[in-house]
Amino acid sequence: MSDNILEMIDITKEFSGVKALDEVNLKVKKGEIHALVGENGAGKSTLMKVLSGIYPFGSYTGDVVYNGEICDFKTIGDSEDKGIAIIHQELALSPYLSISENIFLGNEQQSKGIINWSITSQKATALMKKVGLNLDHNLLIKDIGVGHQQLVEIAKALAKDCKLLILDEPTAALNDEDSDKLLELLLELNKEQNLTCIIISHKLNEITKIADQITVIRDGSTIETMTKGIDEITEDKIIKGMVGRDLVERYPTRKKSVGDINFEIKDWVVYDPLDEDRQKIKNVSIHVKKGEILGIAGLMGAGRTELAMSIFGRTYGKNIQGTIMKDNQRIECGDVCEAIGHGLAYLTEDRKEAGLILSDDIRKNISLSNLWKISKRGVVNTNLELENAKNFREKLRIKSSSIFQNTGNLSGGNQQKVVLAKWLFSEPDVLILDEPTRGIDVGAKYEIYSIINELAEQGKSIIVISSELPEILGICDRIYVMNEGSIVGEMPIEEACQESIMTCIIQSS
Ligand SMILES: Nc1ncnc2c1ncn2[C@@H]1O[C@H](COP(=O)(O)OP(=O)(O)OP(=O)(O)O)[C@@H](O)[C@H]1O
Ligand SMILES: [Mg+2]
Fold it and tell me: Quick one: pLDDT at residue 1?
């Protein structure tokens, strides 16, 4: 028998006439960590949904051979019964259930239809220990961070006696420290329990670190599989496979021309909406100049998103105090409409919850931020709307069947591009980008950086919040460091490096 636990042979999957997968082949050896890489929309998540029965047998062509048997999974339950578990790109935990309830959701510890809570908590505690989750199992999912949520997902998979674990971009929303911990855990489980893993990621440094084999797919077809120890594996080689050409520079250059201060926040104080005695933002004062790209660095939970959202139409926080100045005039941004009216835009870090109307198409999502630009006497000019959406689809290379595709069906990276298009359409003077390249492939990242540069060259002010320090260091002119709701450092890019930023954080903790 072959040493492959899985063979996906000539898998083709179409969505209303559009081929998402075109005779894809993937072979995974028992006990290995196999990475699946490719551009946004290449078909990675779709392939994994075929494997896990989310797209049932019969809805695709080709064979899925698992442990030597051709599979005919009709539901995700069928693949789980065989020991296959998938952790989706967007986590699928129930926010108002506890950690232990989530671990055993759909796999309840029961006898005669009655849940045995004592066994549930006992087993949950043991599983949590295994994945290094040192929390009370009664905590609700909504009250724990994304890093911890990922660990709950893994515990959940292990609870089902999983043999093949699929992780779709598990570290996209994690900071470096949490990512490292997660990858260490995978390596440990892989070694100790001989757990086979398929991991999808755009973070190529992680892939090269942990994967035994790497399969590259492009436009729904398999390009190549590289094996550690046999093939030479470099990030550049993977990128070439993904995008079909060399990508020499990761960060485009720009003609810098920084002008006067354009936007200023003074003595900004924000209280926790759930706990009115708790200050989340503590006397923050920041400014950004015309044509400047300003970075805000910090660890997860530093308060960067809360700062941005409280500025942008008071979408976060209670009892907000402080002043916003734009072009030396005090302005009020009581709600999102007012903020947009003053030329502000905020790209959320959470595209699915707050960035898109998933049941609407690309066209409508893009025009949302600036309807008055394409309307006359309160009526939207559909021709203008179509033309505008087509332009953005082309400019940002949003991979989709047309501008009428629902954003809920787009690949993660392409959803992100639609949110960006929406804010570009509002033609802001000050654009706040919160994790702008989360889930974006390397080629598209370069394109997004080029757009940011273009906006800066036009004299716009850009504020970039990012957990990826190389990104902040690669594109910004000046950096603020934030920790525990305060600004704890400021430095021009010439003086900034990973160490100097971390030093600011550590010294202020
Ligand atoms: N339910 C659906 N209906 C229509 N088209 C779909 C559907 N699901 C996926 N697609 C299309 O299939 C293609 C592949 O999408 P998929 O989500 O597999 O990409 P991906 O490689 O996971 O990308 P990313 O890195 O952005 O997550 C995309 O062009 C997407 O628009
Ligand atoms: Mg995907």
Answer: 54
DSSP letter string over 453-486?
Answer: HHHHHTT-EEEEE-S-HHHHHHH-SEEEEEETTE
Which atom of ligand 1 is nearest to 38's Cα?
21
> Which ligand is in closest contact with the Cα of 398?
1
Q: Output the residue whose Cα is nearest ligand 1's atom 25.
A: 40
Residue ending a domain, choose from 427, 458, 479: 427
100 CB less than 6 Å from ligand 1? Answer: no
Q: 166: how many CB neighbours lie within 10 A of its CB?
A: 27
Q: What is the pTM of this model?
A: 0.86
Do 419 and 458 lie in one domain? The reply is: no
Q: Of 144, 161, 178, which residue sits at a domain end?
A: 161
* 3-state DSSP assignment of residue 293: strand
> Are residues 407 and 418 in contact, defined by beta-carbon separation less than 8 angstroms?
yes
Can you list the alpha helix ranges (DSSP code H) found in 211-329?
A: 235-243, 304-311
Whether 407 lines ligand 1, by a CB cut-off of 6 Å, is no
Q: What is the DSSP track for 76-88?
A: HHHHHHTTEEEE-
Determine whether the shortest distance from the Cβ of 415 to ligand 1 is under 6 A.
Answer: no
Tens digit of each residue's pLDDT (9 = 90 or more) over 225-240: 999 999 999 999 999 9
**Are 67 and 107 contained in the same domain?**
no
Question: Which residue puts its alpha carbon closest to atom 31 of ligand 1?
Answer: 410
Note the pLDDT tens digit of each residue in 423-478.
999 999 999 999 999 889 998 899 899 999 999 999 999 999 998 899 999 999 99
Range of 103's domain?
96-161
On whether residue 214 sits in a domain, the answer given is yes
Q: Please name which of 407, 413, 448, 406 lies closest in space to residue 431, comparing C-alpha atoms.
A: 448
pLDDT of residue 306: 95
Ligand nearest the Cα of residue 444 is 1
Which ligand is in closest contact with the Cα of 412? 1
pLDDT digit string, tens, across residues 143-174: 888 788 989 999 999 998 899 999 999 988 88
| Bridge partner residues of 261 (DSSP) | 289
